[in-house]
Predict the structure.
Amino acid sequence: MKVDDFFSQIHPGSDFSHDGLAQTVQENISRILFGNLSRRDFEARALFEENLTELPIGHLMDHRVQMPKEVALELARDESSLGAFLERLLCARPHSEGREMVAQALGINSAELRQDLIKLRDVDLNLFSSVVSGCLGQSFDEITKRPLPADLWKLMQSCMADMLILYCMFEIQLIAARAAKLNRGGPWLPTHHSPVVVSDFVEGMSAITQAAQYRFSGLDKSPLPKGRPPIIASLMNEKFAKDRLILTGRTEAEVAPDILDLLPSLQAKFDMAEKMLGNPKLASDGQGETSQREHASTAIEGGVRAGVQLAFAALRLVNLLERKEALTDLSLAQRRLAFRSWRKVKLPPKTNPIAEVVLFVTRCAILMDVQAGQAFNSDGKQTLLEPQMANFRKGGSVAGEDLFKTAKEDIPYKETDARPMAYQKLEHELRGIQRFDILPDYRLGLTALSPPTRRSTPQRTRGYEPRNRTKYKRIPRSRSNPVKPGYRR
């Protein structure tokens, strides 16, 4: 393994001032983790990216994705692009059979949906934009401003219900892409690095911090930790330091105080990255060869393997499919009731055919899990998926049945009723089961405004105000006092 390939992507910069080094660290994090993309730019790209694993890992850590309004307006002007976009939500990779299988399983006709969206566009462009962008909460806000004719409302609700399902299907693909990217190491690590864990990035940056401290603090009795790659020494050796100092025109004695003063803030940056990416642990995801890999994605979700994450999300999508009309009802109270019902309902059977198709296509085309099947040959040509999936049914089971079983029985977040609502603002990160659950609440605007605190966490209530009752002092009965309080003889 050539660790140099990893560390060579970390640019040390030439400005060793306090502000210069802080800026260098921020630039490295922005480039390596986020691809120098703003969240808005990422969303615009993600919805049209065929290979989702090419997206920056920092952004893939959060699957709350909505289409920017300007992109929706572009689709309004290009009907063919609108149709292609709907197909991509079914399966981002250009696999025609895979898309057809998912569409049939979910009961969505993308061609008819496209025509309905065009009708909606011709009547009201704002309603079209909010629906096609997945901002369904905004759609309801638009409706409250003015009443809609019955036929227009029926058309709009049908479009919203289908778009809700399609965007949640896309969320499952983002979860798969994140797992695939973490498991293979992502762009900040060499593709041949196996096994790979996310902490390699954080540990590498921390190693540079420790090397800087060792180099400039003069603590000769504190050697670099054992096992640090040679690149650290090459970056922080005397020749490197002198070359950099020549560029700055300062002496080592002048630079040392700045570096020592900067170290705490540098470490805070690394701690932030580590918190975001989690602390990977060893977890197998199958048998044979794959059991020898460390799956970085599992640690982010508390040890839940990538395949189980997707199985869980697929089952949740089936539950959502059964409630899509109620979740897009005109009544806010009805939508909230439908969401509460979805959140607490038990998962479907592990042999559910809809979940089977969603999981199988996602594993083959997005996760690229060879244990499931193969969506593309080495030359890039599509393979037939139905025959591969049929092989799992010969023994009377379904494809991925073991993953469905684990999702139903062994996930440490069995009580989905306890799952909090997703936050509308991305500054409030997803937690626990939200990290691999679909998020209809985020799309419908049924979201928490801010993270709950101990005092602000709502308590379970009866749903009505109990009437005031007269309180009596408890007086024990006895032979000398046989009458209960409040009773007159």
